[in-house]
Every structure is written in structure tokens, then in C-alpha cells.
Design goal:
The protein has 529 residues and is of the alpha/beta class. The chain is 35% helix and 23% strand. The protein has 19 helices and 19 strands.
Length: 529
């Protein structure tokens, strides 16, 4: 099919990528319906009094040449040195033609529409000390852990290596096999259970397989050796596990800048993006979606539209409930029990940080250099801390202040979710002060952001998700894409790749959806086919 109308549900990365691909490669007119009053999904940038927030933190890094080149076509990469020696090396690598396809950029840092090259430092804060994430095999790490704990970690790793758990039924099994029981209990168990709200023994191992892929003790050791002897500073970092990358690209004004630019291009080329409108119904005939019901959020009015194609990024649970048809009982049952984890961020503006760090973990002005920090302390509910100054200095209106994001995981309707904004912000401020990061008297301002259904969960009825997939894949013109659309914990580049392949399938007349489901399941998803 090369002409017609496509309804795209959701204006996040996957939905906007589909629209962009359609207006460039077909004569199909995309109409994007977004139920909220913003675009970008969880990859949007929130502007609060001139301070910009990145919800969840988005590194622009991919092992897919296609995605890296796609980003570059929207926002060219930084080509002007920025005074940071380690970053300048990466900038110089971008300026030269390379087999990676990342040729010279067109703009410099003095212009606004640009991707900056950023250093990545993310650490774990545990027992009131900093540990590199992923853990580095350095003397300081051993000293901070203590001799007894270190030998327990080494012994349990050897035990897991000799006697692995088979089969790996849960996330707990997978992590014990990768890292040993003691290291798992020390650095992974509590944080992961903060994120998901349930025991790791009740979470499917597939989540770990997707999120940490080839990461292991052996890979950590190998990476330490390679860093010591390698001079390869290329931003592509293709030979490095994703969790171990040290540099990434980042839009000057946050991730939403890129998606706002994509939306502008889509509309310039004839596509439509309509906010505050929710797709609430779908009617099928002969295994094809023929009509979609769209609700105007402001007026409550519902309109029915004809369509030739549907690309859905809405939560699968909502998609199934929107279908106007007699559904198999098993499909309804699985959909109803799909679970999600919700997310809250407190944007916090402070005069300064109280916390100190070693030379490797701070800038000359004293600000610690972390982009984000995993909070492993058991006496607070805070899970992760973003330091937006370090993502891009342009996210902060006043560079002399520190702009933070305090991240909490919860369930919609629970105690944290239902707290009034000021009460929740006060709770978060007290927690951050408790673990030594700030003085309460240094807080200048705050804002609270809630994100429902931020993370599709690998428990509930997830182990029967194949029932839904088999049912939905029968509809030839319906494509599930993106994180919530496929109920897969995809990174942004994975979501974009599902969108790109879905459009390819349409152009090529391919009715099978198998290639979409393979994204982020194969180790070498980035290899060109």
C-alpha cells in the first residue's frame, strides 16, 4: 500500500517515527491522535519556569546505524569543541568520515538545533558511598565494600558459575546466575524491587534479558581491561555493552526538542498531529480495522473515522478494551491482568548540593559529575536522582543553581500517587536531605510530575501475552509498535526501529509482524539485514 490514510495512536517516539517515515516514503497521510496535551510521550521535555526536565533521562545512543543517522538528520551532531578534553576527542571523531556512517556535522554549539556530545557517569549510592554503575573492578570499590563482603561476593559468584540455576524462571534467577547471590543482594535486589514494587522472584527473566543483555562480571572485567589499553573514543561505541557506554548524544534543550522538530516536519509534509484526542474504539471487518472512534478530551464528543492502517502505541490493555467486537475470553482475561508501573518525578531547584565526591566524580566548580544516581539506600523510597545540569547545561535557566529530578516508582492510586503535590515534594526533599545530598534550607522551588503506565510489567498475565499477540497479529492493517504498544520494556531506539520496520512492511506488502517482535530480543538487533 502506498496511498490512503493511517491513524497513529500516540505521539511518542514510536508514533512520531511512523508518521515521519510515512510522509517521506509513501503517499499515505498520517493522522496522529494524542490523548494528552503534549507530544513526545515519556521522552518529552517539560519546561518549568525556564528549567527543563527530562522524564526518566534519555541517552541518545544506539548500536543501530539507521537510528543514529535518523537522529542526525533531525538535529546535527555537535562539531565545535566544548573545552572538555574527553568530549573534544569524541567531537573530533564525529568530524571525520567513518565506516559508521557518522560524517561531518553541519552546525556548531552556538546554534540551538543540535545534539551535544555528553559524558556519561551514573553511579550507585549505597551505605552513603558512591559505587560506579555498572560496578568497576577497582581498588576503591573493594575498599568501600569491605574485605568480608568482597570475599562473599567473589565466593557466591564462583558458586553461581559452577552451579547455575536452571532453568532461569525469574529475574532473580537471571541476576544470581550473572552476578552471584551476594552481589545480587547487595546492589540489585532492593533497587529493582523499589522499581517494580514486588519481589524479583515474581518478575519474568525476560525483563533482565532485555535490559542488561550481555552484561556480566566477565564483561565488566573485560571492559576494565579494554578501557586501560584502548584509545577508541568514537561516539558509536559499537563494541561496548549498552550499559557500559561512557558518552552519548543529547539534544541541546532535552529530548522533547527532537520530537518537537519531528512533529514540525511531519505537519510541513502534510501529516496531522492532533492533541487532546483519544482513540477509544476500533471496528474490524475481514481481519482489517476499518473505523476508529476518536474522543475529543475537551468536549467529550466522539467521532468515527475511516482508516486504511492503524499503528498503535497505546497500552495493550486499553487497545483490547477499545475493540468493538466479540473477543475471545482468553484474550480479554490476559489483557485485563496486564500490569504497569507508574512513575513520579519531583523537579527540585536548589542553591547547591551538600554531597561531595572524589576527583573523578565532580567538576571543577564542585558539582558532582553524575547524569543520574541509583539510590540503593534502604531507608528511603527515592529510587533515582537526575542532575539535569549534567545532561545539558542548557536545561538550567540559572547555571549557578542545581536542577534535580527525584524519581519514584509507584502504582496509580496508591499512597504516594495520591499525595497532594506540595506534600509529596516535602516528603521527597526530606528524603534527599536525609541521605546527605542537600540542606532543606537550600531548596528554591519544586514541581511534581506524574506519569501513568510508564513501564509495562513482566508479571501479572505477561507470561500469557502470546495469546494477545496471536490475536492482534491476525489484523493485517494493525501494527503494534513502541513500549506500551507492544508491552515490551524497549529503549527509545528499539521503539523507533519497530516503527521503521512497520512502515517497511506496509511499503513491501509484508503482512507478517514477526520482524517487529524480534526487535530487542536478538543480541545483534542493530545489525543491518
Amino acid at each position: 500500500m502506498k496511498e490512503g490514510t493511517a491513524i497513529i495512536v500516540g505521539a511518542g517516539p514510536a508514533g512520531l517515527t511512523v508518521a515521519y517515515e510515512l510522509v517521506h516514503k509513501t503517499k499515505i497521510k498520517p493522522i496522529v491522535f494524542e490523548k494528552t496535551n503534549f507530544i513526545g510521550g515519556i521522552s518529552r521535555t517539560i519546561n518549568y519556569k525556564g528549567n527543563r526536565m527530562d522524564i526518566g533521562g534519555h541517552r541518545f545512543f544506539s548500536k543501530s546505524d539507521r537510528v543514529m543517522q535518523w537522529w542526525q538528520s533531525i538535529l546535527p551532531f555537535q562539531t565545535t569543541p566544548c573545552g572538555d578534553e574527553s568530549l573534544d576527542i569524541a567531537v573530533q571523531a564525529l568530524q571525520s568520515d567513518s565506516p559508521d556512517g557518522l560524517g561531518p556535522g553541519a552546525l556548531n554549539e552556538n546554534l540551538d538545533r543540535i545534539m551535544l556530545v555528553r559524558n556519561r557517569l551514573s553511579r550507585i549510592y549505597y551505605i552513603r558511598k558512591f559505587f560506579n554503575y555498572p560496578l568497576s573492578l577497582k581498588i576503591k570499590t573493594l575498599i568501600d565494600l569491605g574485605v568480608v563482603r568482597f570475599f562473599k561476593i567473589a565466593g557466591s559468584y564462583l558458586m553461581a558459575w559452577v552451579f547455575p540455576i536452571r532453568p532461569e524462571k525469574s529475574l532473580e534467577d537471571l541476576m544470581i546466575n550473572r552476578f552471584g547471590r551476594e552481589l545480587y543482594r547487595t546492589f540489585f535486589k532492593d533497587y529493582t524491587e523499589k522499581v517494580w514494587g514486588i519481589s524479583c522472584s515474581h518478575i519474568g527473566s525476560e525483563w533482565g534479558a532485555q535490559r542488561i543483555k550481555g552484561l556480566s562480571i566477565a564483561k565488566l572485567a573485560l571492559n576494565t581491561i579494554k578501557k586501560a589499553i584502548s584509545k577508541n573514543q568514537k561516539i558509536t561505541q559499537k563494541e561496548t555493552e549498552t550499559s557500559l557506554i561512557e558518552k552519548f548524544l543529547y539534544p541541546k534543550y532535552g529530548p522533547g526538542q527532537l520530537w518537537e522538530e519531528v512533529a514540525r516536519i511531519v505537519e510541513e509534509r502534510g501529516g496531522k498531529i492532533i492533541i487532546d484526542h483519544e482513540v477509544v474504539g476500533m471496528v474490524a471487518e475481514n481481519q482489517c480495522i476499518k473505523k476508529a472512534a476518536v474522543k475529543n478530551q475537551a468536549t467529550g464528543e466522539v467521532s468515527w473515522l475511516d482508516t486504511d492502517l492503524v499503528f498503535s502505541t497505546m497500552p495493550v490493555k486499553d487497545l483490547i478494551s477499545s475493540m468493538v467486537a466479540e473477543l475471545p475470553e482468553e484474550v480479554k482475561s490476559v489483557a485485563e491482568d496486564l500490569r504497569y508501573r507508574d512513575f513520579m518525578t519531583v523537579g527540585l531547584l536548589v542553591k547547591k548540593l551538600r554531597i561531595k565526591s572524589d576527583e573523578a566524580g565532580r567538576f571543577a566548580d564542585g558539582l558532582i559529575a553524575d547524569t543520574w544516581i541509583y539510590i540503593q539506600e534502604k531507608d528511603v523510597k527515592l529510587a533515582r536522582l537526575q542532575i539535569f545540569n549534567n545532561w545539558s547545561p542548557y536545561l538550567v535557566q540559572d547555571p549557578s543553581k542545581v536542577w534535580l529530578g527525584l524519581e519514584y516508582f509507584c502504582n496509580e492510586g496508591d499512597e504516594m500517587w495520591c499525595m497532594p503535590d506540595d506534600e509529596f515534594a516535602a516528603f521527597a526533599i526530606e528524603e534527599l536531605a536525609k541521605i546527605g545530598f542537600i540542606d532543606v534550607s537550600d531548596v528554591l522551588d519544586h514541581v511534581v510530575i506524574r506519569v501513568p503506565k510508564a513501564y509495562p510489567a513482566y508479571f501479572g498475565s505477561y507470561d500469557r501475552f502470546h495469546v494477545i499477540r496471536e490475536f492482534i497479529d491476525k489484523f493485517e492493517n494493525l501494527f503494534l509498535i513502541g513500549r506500551n504498544g507492544m508491552h515490551k520494556y524497549n529503549n527509545m531506539d528499539h521503539s523507533m526501529l519497530t516503527a521503521m520496520l512497520a512502515v517497511e512492511n506496509v511499503v513491501n506488502g509484508e503482512t507478517s509482524k514477526n520482524n517487529l517482535w524480534e526487535i530487542n530480543t536478538e543480541r545483534n538487533y542493530h545489525e543491518e539485514r
